Every structure is written in C-alpha cells, then in structure tokens.
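tl;dr need the bound structure. longer version: we got a ligand (2-oxoglutaric acid) that a collaborator sent over and nobodys looked at where it sits. i said id run it. heres the input, straight from their email, havent touched it
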Amino acid sequence: MLRSSGPLWHQNPDDDVTQSISPSAVRWVYKERKCPLQALGVRYLRESLSIEVHMSVLKLRGFEIHKELLNYAAQKELVKVVREIAKAAPVFSPMTPYGKPMTVKMTSAGTYGWYSDAKGYEYRRSHPKGMAWPEIPPQIMNIWQSVSGVQRMPECCLVNFYGQEARMGMHQDNDEANFDFPVVSVSLGDEGLLRLGGTTRGGKTDSVWLQSGDVVVMGGEARLAYHGVDRIRFGSSSLLPKGGRINLTLRVVD
Ligand SMILES: O=C(O)CCC(=O)C(=O)O
C-alpha cells in the first residue's frame, strides 16, 4: 500500500476551476497493474496525495469506477450483442421535455426501455415503433452480477450511442422505484468525459475520462448524484470501426 496525506488537486478541464478534493474523497485503489493517474483522468496532483492500493477500483464521490474490467475480447463480444439489440429495437433520438432532440441516440433491452418526449421521461414496456424490447443478453447480465453487489437482476439496459458531437447533460437517475439498487454503467469505444456532481444541482464537480471496458457502479451516496458526459474523444478507440462511444446503463426499475 502506498499512502501519504494532504490535499489532492484536480482541475476540471471544462470550467477551468481548480478544486480541492480531500484525500478521503478519492480512494484510488489499484492492484497488480500499474496505471498512471492521468490515465484515470485525475490530473494536477500534489505530491501529498493519499493513495490506497488494494483493489482495481477508483472511488470518487461514491462512484466506483472499475478500470478496464472488460478485456478487448469481452468488449468486442459486447459490441456484437449491442448490434443485435439495435437490430431488434432500432435506435432513435429521444426528444427532451425542453423540445430539443437529445444528441445521444438510444435504444433499450429488458422488460422496460427508457423513453423521453415533450411530456417527460419514463420507462416503457415497448419501443416507440410498438415492438417489445429484446431481452438483456447474458453477457451484459454477467457484468451486473459481478459488480452490482445485489441479487436482483436489472430490468432495463439502456443503450446510448455517442457520435462525435454527442453529450449528455447533468442529470439524476431518479425514475426508478427503489434507489437501494445501484445503476451499473459500461463504456465501450471512444473515451467519454464523465462529470460527477452531488445530489443537488450545481456546486463543485469532478471529471473522469471513461475508457472502453470501464464499468461504473453508482450506488449508495452516488445513486442519486448528478452526472453527465461533457464530450467524447472521437477516434480515441479502435473498438468501433466508425468511431463513437456506446454506453450501457443497467437499472432495476420497479
Ligand atoms: O454515458 C455515460 O457514461 C452515462 C450515461 C448516463 O448517465 C445515463 O444513461 O443516464
């Protein structure tokens, strides 16, 4: 274990505000593999950083970020199953309640799919074209089982496709019935800059670059935390031949 004490400084790349995060807010844990902090998206560190090395999980504001949980072969396999989902339930651009289409294209698998239009956000049992959502493939269920820490299985796998200009504004995931169950998020393809906030809108945020194969668990204090994706690094990964990012979010709905 490598440990020291003192503040850790992180500069949020978008708003250019240098923030101080207490060392206990970041438990960077790393086992067996070596990884520069920059690769985790944590930048501008003071020497006196507290680092604990015992698990391959970065814990930031309660968000558990399992770095590179999925190897390249597993990522490729997931891209294949996501293509099958999109074949059965074609992607669409949901409208926001503010009257603008989202820049992220979406579809879902599971009993419920996530939907948004001028009336608001909701889970629906069928695709806007009328068909039922396809089942959540076992390869995706396995990820939930390995990181969620709960027995109950998810009922929705939202599939987000990010093109070059796509982003997702800061929001809370609060359309589910029970917040004791975490949200599990899987990143594939180009890197995405995830912004992490608190449980109320506004205030300080931290950001972390998510890479292909990273899996984030939003549970406990992070379950209702605001988060969003500021931008992607288009072309940073070779996983998707045409570039872009896929994000899967798994949720227990009712
Ligand atoms: O794309 C991501 O990493 C986050 C997705 C997300 O926040 C959501 O689907 O609610």
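gonna send this back to them w/ a short note. The CA atoms of residues 174 and 183 lie 10 Å apart.
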